[in-house]
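Q: How would the structure tokens look for this protein?
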Amino acid sequence: MKRLYSVGLTALFAILLCSNVYALQLLYPLDGTYVTKSNYLIVKGGTDPLLTGVSIEINGVNSDVIDISSEAYRAAFGDMFIVKPLFDPGKNQIIVEGFVGKERMARVTATVYYQDRFDQAPPAGLSREVFHYPGREEACVGCHNMTPTTAELSNPDPRKNPCASCHMRMLNLPHVHGPAGVYECTYCHAVDSSPSKYMPRLEGAALCLECHEDKMEEFRKSNFVHGPVDAGLCLACHDPHASSERGQLTMPAYELCASCHAQVVKVPHVARGSGGKPHPLKGVVNPAGTGEDLSCASCHEPHSGVTSAMLRWGAQSRMTLCAKCHSK
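A: Here is the predicted structure in token form.
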């Protein structure tokens, strides 16, 4: 059976149970919205008596009933329970059901769009889902500090920083963005934004270039700028918090480039060698001695360059570039 979610006590995930008997309500994500991360599924339900189990269905695939009835669980989390869903890219039909014993007592449905690519717009009419509205935060105050001071929001200790109580797991990756690593969340997120709190202070490159101003100088000196860079879409390729990839790429370099430049991988690239094989694009060590595996970024600058192909090392011709690795 396909697993639709990941759940763990250390993540403080919860289904929020309210005073209405068996009245399930999906709090996040809301029906008719789109999300850019498959990170949370939060439901509100009845409390008198407490539901003992919950099941989740996403796009026709069911989970088992999740037991939330144990005394140990209740002692640790009371009536709180959240799951991390595994949404499919695109449209997701969600069904959540509440149980007392084996009897189904409540049911709620929603359609949510998971936009996993920045080069494709979500369907028209959908609004982006965000969480930190006052009405939603009220459900969390029993366990979380939802009105932190500026000093608390800047505390580098994750045990004391209120953002870390929910979002610390997003940093459990090898390559962490500097401000995120020391919980300087409010450098990028506005505390007093409206209608939702903690929205980015600025959009796209305008925020990134406040710190990475050296890149702006690089772009000015270049004859050609990569399309997403020119449009200020830094987050099309980089995760602003943490990533498994160097440079905080959203996926391995070859896969990221190929997600837009699909035509490149469909035909032999650069030239066929004496054996009839095209130049490799991945799967071998970069012979230029950088210590990295070969990828598109081994030969092409990902941001800007002096030629339309944005060749590395300032090369103005392909032959000059080839000589970097090939002496003959």
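Residues 150-201 form one domain.

Confidence is low (pLDDT under 50) at residues 7-21.

Upvote if useful.
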